[in-house]
Design brief:
By secondary structure, the chain is of the alpha/beta class. The protein folds into two domains: 9-246, Type I PLP-dependent aspartate aminotransferase-like (Major domain) (Aspartate Aminotransferase, domain 2, 3-Layer(aba) Sandwich), CATH 3.40.640; 252-374, Aspartate Aminotransferase, domain 1 (Alpha-Beta Complex), CATH 3.90.1150.10. The chain is 38% helix and 16% strand. The protein has a seven-stranded mixed β-sheet, with helices on both faces. Strands 12-13-14 form a three-stranded antiparallel β-sheet. A two-stranded antiparallel sheet has the order 6-7. Strand 6 and strand 7 form a beta hairpin. Helix 2 packs antiparallel against helix 9. It is globular and about 65 Å long. Keywords: Aminotransferase, Pyridoxal phosphate, Transferase. This is DegT/DnrJ/EryC1/StrS family aminotransferase.
């Protein structure tokens, strides 16, 4: 059995290595490295994949968040509501723009933002809510959409982890994650479900006008060369990455099914392990399992399980070990320890298991066997 990896991109790419090689060779030959034709073609293909959304590529997922907020034109000091349990980039973008991140609690089962906490955090200074579809499952878009509409604030979706997931609304409508709010953002960091071979990102929006604005902001605030209407960023997706992403997008449905099949096998095998909680499924959302994240009850038990697995050559990861309000850089926000008990507890309980499409059945059996051995079941 080959060594188990948390993410095995070489194994994932192997079946279509020749397609990737052809793509980079063609890009090197064409030599249109910035804004080459592949960038627009990739954007159109991804848009079609996501039910017709406008897609604006950019340099990475953090820039996508910055551009999304920048496009709202919020005055400095405007409050932006973000979950207390997320990757730091979600609030970093707001903080860098001089906006004030307002943290709110998450739900203990889905790990996603608690709509009631969002409602309670609204003030006359709120300008936007950033929902994060953590680990591959949509936040409660039904409630969040209603809350934001009623309050007249923009809903931004940080969709770095749930590209391709769908959410079913009570109205009967179904929408792709990232295409519901005013702007959706994603990342093509190599470990994401649709990852490139370096850094990359994109924005989603339903309106052509917002797409035009985002495109302008991502390219030095210019629509026409050397005419700068706005202060923007240099945040473009490299042609090379776009060419490689076009290949990987074709293989995304198979990769997504592989992740879902692995998740279903973990679910079945670990369902009756006492003290271990499976990832909760929200019936309204599909789950694309960017991470398969279990919760382990009991003081020190999660860390003991991680050590046990490591001793048997099984990697796992803790997303995230420290809630954002406890990060030194965000101490200025003034949230004491104990302010977000759910987020704080999750940091001590979560463990993400290997769920990448390159994981073999034999490797997964081995992982399951060692988890069961740890819990003596
Ligand atoms: C990865 C990630 C980002 C940042 O994306 P980069 O491309 O690494 O800048 C933002 N938010 C979440 C939730 C992420 O997982």
């Amino acid at each position: 059995m080959p060594p188990i990896q948390l993410l095995d991109l070489a194994a994932e790419h192997a079946p279509y290595q020749a397609e990737l090689d052809a793509a980079w060779r063609a890009t090197v030959q064409e030599a249109a490295f910035i804004q080459g034709p592949d960038v627009d073609e990739f954007a159109a293909e991804l848009g079609a994949h996501l039910g017709g959304a406008n897609v604006v590529p950019c340099a990475n997922g953090t820039d996508a968040l910055t551009l999304a907020l920048l496009s709202l034109g919020l005055p400095r000091g405007t409050e932006v509501i973000v979950p207390a349990f997320t990757y730091v980039a979600t609030l970093e973008a707001a903080a860098l723009l001089g906006l004030r991140p307002v943290l709110v609690e998450v739900l203990p089962d889905t790990f996603n933002v608690d709509p009631a906490a969002v409602r309670a955090a609204l003030t006359p200074r709120t300008g936007a809510v950033v929902a994060v579809h953590l680990f591959g499952q949509c936040a409660d878009m039904e409630e969040l959409t209603k809350i934001c509409q009623l309050a007249g604030v923009a809903l931004i979706e940080d969709n770095a982890q749930a590209l391709g997931a769908t959410f079913a609304f009570a109205s009967g409508e179904t929408a792709f994650a990232g295409t519901v709010g005013e702007v959706g953002t994603t990342s093509f960091f190599p470990s994401k479900n649709l990852g490139c071979l370096g850094d990359g990102g994109a924005l989603f929006t339903r309106t052509a006008a917002r797409a035009d604005l985002l495109r302008q902001l991502a390219n030095h605030g210019q629509r026409q060369k050397y005419l700068h209407q706005r202060i923007g960023l240099n945040s473009r997706l490299d042609t090379l990455q776009a060419a490689l992403l076009r290949v990987k997008l074709r293989h995304l449905p198979a990769a997504q099914s592989a992740r879902q099949a692995l998740a279903a096998r973990y679910d079945a095998a670990l369902a009756s392990v006492p003290g271990l909680h499976l990832p909760a499924r929200d019936a309204r959302s599909s789950h694309v399992f960017h991470q398969y994240t279990i919760k382990v009850e009991g003081e020190g038990r999660r860390d003991a399980l991680q050590q046990h697995l490591k001793a048997h050559g099984i990697p796992s990861a803790i997303y995230y070990p420290l809630p954002v309000h406890q990060q030194p850089a965000y101490a200025y926000l003034g949230y004491p320890l104990g302010q977000f008990p759910v987020a704080e507890r999750l940091c001590g309980q979560v463990l993400s298991l290997p769920v990448h499409p390159g994981l073999t059945g034999g490797q997964q059996e081995f992982i399951i066997a060692h988890i069961c051995a740890f819990f003596a079941v």
